[in-house]
Specification:
This protein is mainly α and about 200 residues long. It contains seven helices and no strands. Bound molecules: 2-acetamido-2-deoxy-beta-D-glucopyranose (4 copies). InterPro entries: Invertase/methylesterase_inhib, Pectinesterase_inhib_dom, PME_Inhibitor.
Length: about 200
Amino acid sequence: MELQLSTIVFLFLSTTVLLAATTTGQQTSDDIDTEFIRQSCESTRYPDTCFASLSNYSSAVQHDSGRLARIAIHVSLSNATHMANYVSNISRDAADKNNNITRESAAISDCSSLFEDAVDEIKKSRTEMKRLGLTGESVKFQLSNVQTWMSAALTNEDTCTDGFQKVDDGNMKADVCDRVAAVKRVTSNALALVNSYAR
Ligand SMILES: *[C@@H]1O[C@H](CO)[C@@H](O)[C@H](O)[C@H]1NC(C)=O
Ligand SMILES: *[C@@H]1O[C@H](CO)[C@@H](O)[C@H](O)[C@H]1NC(C)=O
Ligand SMILES: *[C@@H]1O[C@H](CO)[C@@H](O)[C@H](O)[C@H]1NC(C)=O
Ligand SMILES: *[C@@H]1O[C@H](CO)[C@@H](O)[C@H](O)[C@H]1NC(C)=O
């Protein structure tokens, strides 16, 4: 009876220790995964934005800089798509309000087309990243395509901001330019992570 009790106590204790060890093990591997993302983000221009936007994907990234680059492009695509929809909406509203063309409404309409193009370029990049090594072309060549398209997307975003230079300061200009600046950080980081992977 005494033996049985101590066996039960032993089993209980070892189960507890095992569970604790398993939990700690998971936390540690999660920490290592996010640490990999933190370190990779150091090579980008906006490391804080990089970590904040990608750390949730640590279990999918593992320690693979190719996967990280692919996920960064995915995040950048959804970010730019949201912005394209936003600019398209305010462009439509601006066109409804004044049927004359002001510098502001012209800048917004240009920005809307530029973001549509940026979204197309990021989409092409996403597709290329999915078929790395599967097309018969060299991975190096495919990555250089992605670098070209992501740079073009970034240039389009820059050009949107440039279009507001001659627009008088106002809420609309400030709002759009702030949002574009935030999107550019995400796009720039995705490009930097592709560059690191291509190196
Ligand atoms: C990351 O996950 C947390 C918890 O699920 C969520 O609150 C947060 O918005 C997510 N962040 C991003 C950038 O997706
Ligand atoms: C754009 O407008 C549509 C329809 O009014 C709305 O459903 C959508 O949420 C808007 N998108 C953005 C990003 O503001
Ligand atoms: C254009 O529209 C704005 C806003 O409705 C108005 O203030 C302005 O007078 C208009 N300009 C011309 C040239 O019609
Ligand atoms: C994406 O873009 C918006 C601008 O519309 C920005 O405010 C937001 O924080 C960006 N970042 C991410 C990770 O979605």
